Amino acid sequence: MCGIVGYVGGRDAVEILLNGLKRMEYRGYDSAGLATLRAGKLAQVKNTGKVQALADRVFREWSEEFREGMHIGIAHTRWATHGAPTDANAHPHLDKAGKIALVHNGIIENYAGLRKMLEAKGHVFLSETDSEVLAQLIGALYQGDLLQAVSAALLQVEGTFGIAVLDEAHPELLVAARRGSPLLIGLGEGESIIASDAAAVVSHTRNVIYLDDDDIAEVRAGTADIRNLHNVPVNRAVSHLDWDSGAAEKGGYEHFMLKEIFEQPDAMRNCLRGRLDDTLHTSVLTGLGLEPRDMAAIQRIVLVACGTSLHAAMVGKYFIEELAGIPVETEQAAEFRYRNPILGPHDLVLAISQSGETADTLAAVREAKCKGTLVAGMCNVVASTIARETGCGIYLHAGPEIGVASTKAFTCQVTALFLLALKLGRGRRLSRQQGAGLVATAKALPELVAATLKLNDKVAAVAETLASCRDCFYIGRGILHPVALEGALKIKEISYIHAEGYHAAELKHGPIALLEAAVPVVALAADVPGKDKMVSNIQECRARGAPVIAVVSEGDEATLTSLRPIVQAIIELPKAPLHAVPVLCVVALQLLAYHAARLRGCPIDQPRNLAKSVTVE
Length: 617
Ligand code: F6R
Known about the structure:
The protein is an alpha/beta fold. Helices cover 37% and strands 22% of the residues.
């Protein structure tokens, strides 16, 4: 995810900016850059690759003597969203006159229209980014007052931003602003540091001001004057950071996995941003590059993926078949190329991969392309190999996932598959009214996930039942069957408890022989078709002495009344529309796995034998 640092004060700005960027490296990025003032003129360096490569270049190209007097600057690590990771797309971006520099986190949704408007006025763009559009817009509106120009520009943009702006004409001033993208200002002795992440600030000062949405600040050495975008002063309290820098990287959470679990509402908002059409009651998936006629011609979809991404695909199959009536096959990517799959000109192969680098999924993409099929990607990492080789698809925009166990990528994959099902469905059998209902479900998802996260303490207590066991089962039916598989995968990879994910009906065809008092069963009885049968399956487990943790929907009194007397624990999910239930369910299971692993003292972010990206067959 992109990171911002800005500095104004009496010390060596370049050193502080580079250190700040290094502190944010854990977030993941693909390019980095910085801009500062030298003798009243902007100087900048930016390139793809690591912060160290940027530092090496800065120190090579700017001698100590050259760097003297550089006491103000802005810097950025970019995680590509609009445009590939290239030197030109890296931040900072400049205005047309090359006198104002900007770094930006977030997404400017109406950038295409603004860019066209500026091009008509003679602006030439050097990058493919939405951020450069904002830099040039600020320049176009600038009449000597930086704060005024930035406010005027931000009032024209739709989307999210955290920005820091530097202007040759004001060598003592940075302007910072935010909407939907975090930004804080650290106030030190005679110096100020702007950052998108407390990790970049804590080694300099613990006194910080968190900007609110639509705040804009004039930041000078040791001071910050904060207003709203209409120039009305606002009061923001100074908070005291008591994290060390390690904790700051994790946003105060004990592990990246927990941070990423809690980031899910925001990750999903980013995944949904700009993708819901309230006029046609459908979704907007421009990255697929398919016209409604191309969509209508698709007769079969093959979803290929591995691990957690395969489980998301299995949920997606339910969505697409139900909403669009198109047959969907899910395929373990490692098998795909070896079994010589039958593919036709009316098939769509969608490769789902968080990293976009998984060797088996990539091989499946190449095999499908070789067979002349339409192939698209669903990746989180922009410009990853699968994203490049498919050339079209749906980015998740979940932000980088650092914890090895995938969490927010899964929920965003399911969200994106829901959007795809909605798009395909509206092109076929869904009415406007049905479309409107599904759009409303998509919009409600982030808040429903936020409500599910409030169960954290309750789930932590329930995890004690699991933490001491050696083996356990996760069972589900219908759309919750893949969720049971995902819950079992999560707990085994981070807690090393042997867990089997099973279809609840399959249990009695063999594995039920293993059930006994020492083998708990996590049973997904939330409100989806098939839940009544789950109650019988739970009774079968209880009859063999297995303790049961049931996941149920709030307000489903019939199920709750049948289960309360017989199960050991109940996790009650917020009441939600059908298509949201698998997402809420998986969030509860992520927390369950996390707390079981924590109670067992496991190295949660880096489980043994696992890598974040599996680039071997
Ligand atoms: C489990 C997990 C893995 C990945 C799998 C595919 O938590 O993260 O099962 O889902 O290795 O990775 P991607 O999605 O990057 O292709």
